[in-house]
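<backbone_tokenisation>
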Amino acid sequence: MNNQTKKFFIYTRKSTDDKDRQVRSISDQLSELKELASKEQLEVVDVFVEKQTAKIPGRPVFNEMVTRMEAGEASGILAWHPDRLARNSVDGGKVIYLVDTGVISEMKFPTFWFDPTPQGKFMLSIAFSQSKYYVDNLSENIKRGHRNKVKEGIWPQMSPIGYVNEKGKGIVPHPDLAPLVRKTFEAYATGNFTLREVRDKFNALGLKRKSGRELAVSNYQKLLKNPIYTGLMRYNGEIFEGKHEPIISKKLFDSVAEVMSRKSKPHSKGLKPFLYRGFFRCGECGCFITTETQKGHNYLRCTKRKNPCSQKYTREEIITSEIQKEIKKVSLPDDWASWMLAENKKDILCEAQSSTLFADNTKADISLLDSKIEKLMNAYLENALSLDEYHSFEFWIRRGECISVGAKRRPRFAFRNPFRKIAEAEGFEPSRGFLP
């Protein structure tokens, strides 16, 4: 059989992600291979172009070519070099096996000699081994370089959302996205937003991937868990100190982690709010007294877990009545009551003064530190402004039309008293209620 009756497939591959370089490299390979086919008068059945690394098996174009060769459509391969066909042991072994079984009768390379003889197959296996060694060694060199960069405080990979890679400086905050990342942390730390609500709000404000695609809920969860925004770097499960400028404080990051941990816990209904839960022990056997609800009434009984007990059920109202009788036997001396009322008034006065001072200082700090963009963003997050209104105000600010305090177009911000919510959350009650 001469070359004129043999059928060949042309296979070209380039693994770089740079599309311009990729097309150029493939066109060069095609030009050389077509010239070789014309020179040796080979019949080219089809051309296969692969744009994927050969480091791992599973390339779809390569697998399609092998399948068609096994079906008898061609018996030879034209490629630039054996490393175009395989850089892993699985695909390299597959090619050699097809040569052994006669499926591949011939392979031609402009830069490598091959003949389907024991010596030729031996040289081919060495070429595949060298290709694999090159990939493995290159990967190890890259990992070593990354480890050294991390130890020096330089982020070695593509910049995360909110940062941008700058040559010679590593990663620096993005002028537009970094403020949005900071507000994402601040909004979620309030506990008033779910991840889905955060996604909707900040996707609308323009927080997106580098490719322009919108972020999913999982992307926001990953972003809020990434310590790189505090100046720390998590790499291969270890934390390193970074030299880049942080976007948020460690305190804010910890607050977000606490909110996320609290929201991730399953919400159970909890125990019923019985008045005397865990309050008494049985006088006969020493076991705890439990409460049950039967026909709309609460009954207290001994759990009887240790020893047999003869005590029966008792209505909760009866226990309450007995406790009230005992309390009425106790009275507070008048001088004690007067002293406690006077101290209570002092506490109330001190608390009011400190609360007012704290509120004034807080308002002053907010007015000094908050920028106009942040105020607009807060208004948007509180639904005081629509998205169109937010963009309109932002446009005025970027044009230099500052919104003064007395301007009519300035969004109104209401300062709410934080102490009332704190007291309600902690369950505090005025001590005055315990005095006559």
In short: Residues 3-138 form a domain with the Rossmann fold fold (CATH 3.40.50.1390). The chain has 14 helices and eleven strands. The chain has a mean pLDDT of 79. Residues 334-369 form the longest helix (36 residues).
